[in-house]
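Limitations

Structures in this collection are predictions, not experimental determinations, and the ligand pose is part of the prediction. Treat each record accordingly. The example that follows, with adenosine monophosphate as the small molecule, is included so readers can see exactly what is and is not provided: the inputs are given verbatim, and the output is the predicted complex.
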Amino acid sequence: MSLDQIVDIAELKAAIRNVPDFPIPGIQFKDITPVLGDARLFGGLVRHLTSGFERGEVDAVVGIDARGFIFGAAAAMDLNAAFVPIRKKGKLPFQTHEQSYDLEYGSNTIAIHTDAMKPGSRVLLIDDLLATGGTAAAAVALLKRLGAEVLHVVFFIELGFLHGRDKLSGVPVRSLVTY
Ligand code: AMP
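Predicted complex:
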C-alpha cells in the first residue's frame, strides 16, 4: 500500500463496482474490492480518510465489522493511533458492552470490549459505507458508553437517499463518495 500518492476522489468512485441484487433482490451492493486490489488506490483512499487529522490528535481509530476493519486498521497505522474493533455480538472474547439496533426486518447487535479505551479517548470511527445509519449510530452509542470523545465519523461511501446522517446528529460526519 502506498500512502504517498495523491489519488483523485473521482478515480476512487470509478473503481467502486456496483453489483445489482446482492445479497438480495433490489439491493445495489457497492463492492469496494477493486479499490483494495490496487495498491495506489487503497493507499490514496486511506490518506483521504485520515486527511485533516494529525498524528497525536487521535488516540484510537474504531472500525466496524467487517469492512471497517480494513480501512480502520490502515488509518490507525497512518495516524499512529490504536485500533479498536466493534464486532457483531458473540465474537469478542472478553467482557463487552452491547448495543442493538433495528433493521428493516429484525434487529442486529454489535459489541465492544469494556476495556477497549480509557474515558476521554479521542476517537475516529470508520466504516466503508453509510446506508440507513443504524450501524454507525449504535457504534457511537457504544463509544459514548466508554466515555470516548468521537471526533469524527468517516465513511468511504454514503447512500445519501437513505438519510443515514440524520441518525448521527451531534457528531461530525464525512464521506468521500455520495450516491
Ligand atoms: P446501515 O446500518 O444501514 O447504515 O448499513 C451500513 C452497513 O451495511 C455497512 O457496514 C455496510 O458495509 C453495509 N451496507 C449497507 N448497504 C450496503 C450497500 N448497498 N452496499 C454495500 N454495503 C452495504
